[in-house]
Amino acid sequence: MTVTTSTTTGVAPVDTVTLTIDGIDIAVPKGTLIIRAAEQLGVAVPRFCDHPLLEPVAACRMCLIEVEGQPKPQPACAVTCSDGMVVRTQLTSAVADEAQRGVMEFLLINHPLDCPVCDKGGECPLQNQAMTEGNGETRFDGAKRLFPKPINVSAQVLLDRERCVSCARCTRFSEQIAGDPFIELLERGADQQVGIAQDVPFNSYYSGNTIQICPVGALTSALYRFRARPFDLVSTQTTCEHCASGCQLRTDVRRGSILRRLAASDPAVNEDWNCDKGRFAFRYVESDERITHPMVRDGDDGALRVASWPEALDAAARGLRAAGRRTGVMTGGRLTVEDAYAYAKFARVVLKTNNVDFRARAASHEEADFLGSSIAGARMTTTYADLEAAPTVLLVAFEPEDESPIVQLRLRKATRRGSLKVFSMGAVATRGLAKLDGELVTTVPGEEPRALDALSDEGSPVGQALREPGAVLVVGERAAGLPGTLSAVLRLAQATGASVAWVPRRAGERGAVESGLLPGLLPGGRPVSDAAARVDAAAVWGVDSVPDEPGLDLPAMLAGCASGELSAVVVAGLDVDDLPDSDAAIAALDTVDFVVALDTHRHDVTERADVVLPVAAAPEKAGSYLDWEGRDRPFGQAVRHAAVLSDARVLSWLATELDVDLGLDTLDRTRAELAQFDAWGGDRVSAPDLAPADPAQPSGRELVLAGWRALIDPSVLQDGEPYLAATARPLVARVAPRTAADLGLADGDDVTVSGPSGAVRRRIEVVPMAAGVVVLTEHVHRELGVAPGSVVTVSSGGLA
Length: 800
What we know:
Helix content: 25-40%
Shape: globular
Structural class: alpha/beta
Number of helices: 25
Oligomer: single chain
């Protein structure tokens, strides 16, 4: 029998070699490792150091097999197949079996037999293989090596050095995949151990992956350590709710509480990896600030008090009925696809308004037109595979390591292979860009439109690179706050033939676009202004008509609250700290007559609501997200909370109180109805064509603000996770050498950065970057009251 395998999809023929493994002939692509070929036959060669996504190193020697013609056993993880090769594994070769047993005996000389207390016990490759390839008795009668334990290689990763078998999986992952070589194998021989430089912690956004791929329990999680055994856990396939990467996860629950998350294998999206935020930030589900019962504002003292569901729904219905169409619906970017659709339908069918927007951040009409013309209804036009195969990628208003960490890993994979060149348009070359060996297109915030138009010139080296087939323009949501940038992106794409990918920061934003959570878009991406689209939507929804009046976007709704144009708002998951002027948003909500809040946690918005309705957090319900590609990412319910329901269920109850059958009381009904919009044709929104605004003109001690929100930030979804919070990167202010000299500043000085609403204190880092700019590595809208591209003042010293 001959087994033929291929790693291609039939696009082009592949050179193959034929070999024999345990008496079975197999043809595999040239360059295939023996261990991979054996796997295709169902032969499990034992291993510790081998991982299909890491470069082979043959460190552990556990995979020794017999190759005919070779004088000694060979490592199956490091030897490639050749034509006519005859291989015998431990199943058919006494030589291979003896070699593997010998290696296991050496590994167990110093490895402690502490399986009953080791976190890896029950799911440990060493434990399993010691039973299959090991001996029942030991010949070693000396003392095992001992180390003080555990040591913190970071705030959340603990190391028990005596368990390490020097497989180098953790160090290879950190260097090859993440690009964070903070950990290394130190010493030699029996003294070899994983270590870090003195006073330099393992500060990586991807450090949790080393815990998962460690085959022996040497690396453990500070959060999970000693809390459960694998057989105590109930596992559910879930999707990360933190960003638009769409990582598939495995959520492990014990007695109703989430104890850990692991990256699930999904070759098309996150491969075998995820970031630390997705892995560790789940304790917010049990936060002290969780809302688990409805609340209404008492008329006597104006305080919120716990109420029954019937009382709270009745109060909400009375307030919304009184406001009529002078109502707005403001949601954040965290909603599932199904919940986003429920809000879009609730606004049009129940409240009879197009005043609906999910963009709880800097937003613009230009962005709405961009999303309607180029993103909505255009699923999977650019994918992770396209990024990895692209010859050139230009990043615009997008920092992948902080804003979509899996995009960063896929770009790094391609750049290490030498097939991709990455350019980034910004004020400073970031740490993430350095890992991509990328090149900075130095641009002062606000000048992006002109810089993009300049790349359309065929004489521009970057523009030439973008004309190569397969080139991609990756634009982040921050472009919405830079007038003219999205229009210039589309012009550049048309001039060069490059495709455009939009990568928002929140997990629910792409789904919100497709579900109709924009004032000018119906579900499926068809414009509200299209009469045929309104007729079709009305038919799906079983109503006579859909409102055709232009709706207000979120900034306009907040202005309408303050001016009296709106009498009531429905607010869901709105994080005011994301807004350019958080204080003004709070003031607007203080002014409006009636606020209904649907949320998971108490915060500034819920404290101003007249009625608060609790809704389920992502792990407490089933649903789906759309990742930035537009790929459907369904997930199951990991934990159950009897007192909270999905947003769609709560909205259905509220609609009933308003004498409307929303028809979205089950997940299946919601998905079936939304699917009717997927096949829509018809017209789309016209592409934006906005001229660039005049850039800011700072003077004196004024600088232009640049920056982005760091991955590890003080958001509500990180509540209750101190180990992750301790890994946040230092908050600094970066300026160019010329700027520092002009202001009389030196590296390490303390400065105060001031805006219209307040000021923050930061330590200065002087780095090569655009002059006249100060970079704050997180948005500080609430403190400063401005967004990137605005002018701020920098003064010496700290806050008074």
